[in-house]
Design goal:
Order of helices and strands: HEHEEHEHEHEHHHEEHHHHHHH
Shape: elongated
CATH class of the largest domain: Alpha Beta
Number of helices: 15
Largest sheet: 6 strands, mixed
Bound molecules: guanosine-5'-triphosphate, magnesium ion
Helix content: 40-55%
Strand order of the largest sheet: 2-3-1-4-5-6
Strand content: 5-15%
Number of strands: 8
CATH architecture of the largest domain: 3-Layer(aba) Sandwich
């Protein structure tokens, strides 16, 4: 492939990664915890909790980090009769559905699930408020079994159920895994990058997805070299790198206000990493970071992404510098996220 073709191909892949979104629809009885789950999944308060969503209007959309959630209005109500429901809300647009329950399973949810099944749509059952599952002298496993049986009986088949508690943040890692397992490749990358990590394992997967994104953006930046780096013999596209850094921060849930908090943390590692993440986020800091890699005599080459970005670009000095800078920034964000998980900060 010529360098010209490689350039076009990389730009295409980067554009695709940037515009990929995951569409998830939630349904379930009022108060089951749909809004709470949306907030927990993205790690931000996007949906109002504890207030009954106004179901007299269309569905409510919430979006963050390329993840789009639709809170569906009641199925088979006077306002939204069953026969016109699927057309009205274009159910086929969704990548998957979450059936959120707590307490007793309802007939309307069963019927909705059957309609989804007919259309070949993926539906994941979430039994939320696991923390409320309690009965004197009955072991939790038994209560879970009872719940599984109840749902299986209602829907007429045994189904996988994910138990979650938004109160204690349990089961959320399993839910994230289950969702990502049911998405096709590009959407899965987007999901893993955007969804909040509740386990070390998911955090590692997030890193792998971010690395691929770094490889692409670094290649595009090196190929589109329009900003000469002072004192060096290379040009890169700074705006692509700034956008990349912004995306990585966002994927790790490092919002500006959260970073402000972390910058003043009493934990030295957190304070240092947060300051780095903030420092390199602006143009001057980014140029400093690039210069650091230019100055190094031997630059580590990122060979594992050659099939992804192409031989010619991977061998170029510009790519080595942009990808090293990108991975260095990713590393700071990742280490900071590890500390956040370890110390349960900001949850
Ligand atoms: N104990 C406990 N309470 C929860 C949990 N998840 C949500 N809640 C609480 O349950 C109430 C309803 O939660 P929401 O997330 O607003 O429920 P919803 O399904 O969006 O409700 P509607 O918008 O009315 O359909 C709130 O008071 C939440 O704080 C949980 O896992 N455990
Ligand atoms: Mg709600």
């Amino acid at each position: 492939m010529s360098i010209h073709d490689e350039t076009k191909e990389i730009q295409r892949k980067l554009d695709e990664a940037n515009k990929t979104t995951v569409l998830v629809a939630l349904f379930g009885q009022p108060g089951a915890g749909k809004s709470s789950l949306i907030n927990k999944i993205v790690g931000q308060k996007v949906a109002e909790v504890g207030v009954e969503t106004d179901k007299t209007v269309e569905l409510a959309w919430y979006e963050a980090k390329g993840l789009k959630f639709a809170d569906l209005p009641g199925y088979g109500t006077e306002r939204f009769p069953k026969d016109s429901y699927f057309q009205r809300f274009d159910m086929m647009q969704f990548d998957l559905f979450l059936c959120v329950t707590s307490g007793k399973f309802h007939q309307a949810d069963t019927e909705f699930f059957q309609e989804l099944k007919k259309r070949g749509k993926v539906c994941i059952f979430v039994a939320n408020k696991h923390d409320e599952l309690w009965e004197d002298e009955v072991p939790i496993e038994k209560l879970e079994q009872r719940k599984l049986k109840d749902i299986a009986k209602q829907v007429g088949q045994s189904v996988k159920v994910i138990f979650t508690s938004c109160k204690f943040n349990t089961g959320l890692d399993k839910l994230n895994e289950e969702i990502s397992n049911n998405l096709e490749a590009a959407k899965r990358e987007r999901w893993v990058r955007g969804a909040k990590a509740y386990s070390e394992k998911f955090l590692q997967e997030k890193r792998a997805s971010c690395e691929k994104y770094v490889a692409l953006a670094a290649a595009a930046s090196a190929l589109n070299g329009i900003n000469p780096i002072p004192g060096a013999d290379i040009s890169v596209d700074i705006s692509i790198l700034l956008k990349l850094f912004k995306e990585i921060r966002s994927d790790y849930g490092l919002t500006e206000s959260f970073l402000d908090e972390l910058k003043n943390s009493s934990i030295p590692a957190v304070e240092l990493l947060a300051n780095n993440v903030v420092k390199y986020a602006v143009k001057e800091g980014l140029v400093l970071l690039l210069k650091r890699f230019i100055a190094q005599e031997t630059i580590k080459s990122i060979t594992k992404y050659i099939p992804f970005v192409g031989q010619a670009i991977a061998a170029s000095i510009g790519y080595k510098i942009t990808s090293n800078a990108g991975n260095s920034y990713l590393n700071d964000c990742h280490k900071l996220a590890e500390q956040i998980l370890k110390h349960k900060l900001g949850v």
